[in-house]
Amino acid sequence: MSQTLITKIDAFVEQAIKLQLDQIGRPPLTTYDPEWPSDCLRGETEPDESIQWLPERQADNNNSCHDMFDRLEQALGYSIHTDLRTWYSRYWSEPLPATSEWGDLSLLFLWSDKDCERLRGNLVGHLLTKQKQKQPATLFFACTEPDGEKFISIDNQTGEIWLEQPGKKPIMKLADSLALFLDMLTPKTIPDLEQ
């Protein structure tokens, strides 16, 4: 696990939280769903009511993500890049918005242990499509905004960061590593996710 990457992830999340509290004066809101609990939630409320949330650091001994990646590797027959493992094993969170020289994007995270299986299914589908198209294996961790039509991924072999469009070859290399990519981002305030 890269200590530099961990430091960069922590710094970005801390900046995002500070920006939110400085500009909005409170954590963002989401709709409480008792079927979808998370350590991110702040306080208590009734189902379908608004509740505040903030990114929450995962426990170092959280095995849900590690087990999920181990099973993913067994199914695929190869190792998943350590930067992606580190990314999804560091924080519980809703997507965090950011801006960059390429435009706005949302950084994807896991909401809870329960969310690990959904991510595994999405990654398997993505990787099988890449394999079928005889393209290098990439693993997504962000999507473009406001359309979400493109995504940002890690090349599983090199660790490089690429802009991609579903079903096509990577469009453009954005950075040599996830740590360097995070240096190019500026957090934005987090929108409320009320329904």
From TrEMBL:
CDD domains listed in its UniProt record: Syd (cd16323)
Pfam families assigned: Syd
Domain of life: Bacteria
Keyword Signal: no
Gene Ontology cellular-component terms listed: cytoplasmic side of plasma membrane
Signal peptide: none
InterPro entries recorded: Syd, Syd_sf
UniProt keywords, alphabetically: Cell inner membrane, Cell membrane, Membrane
Protein name: SecY-interacting protein
Species assigned in the record: Amphritea opalescens
Taxonomy of the source species: Bacteria, Pseudomonadati, Pseudomonadota, Gammaproteobacteria, Oceanospirillales
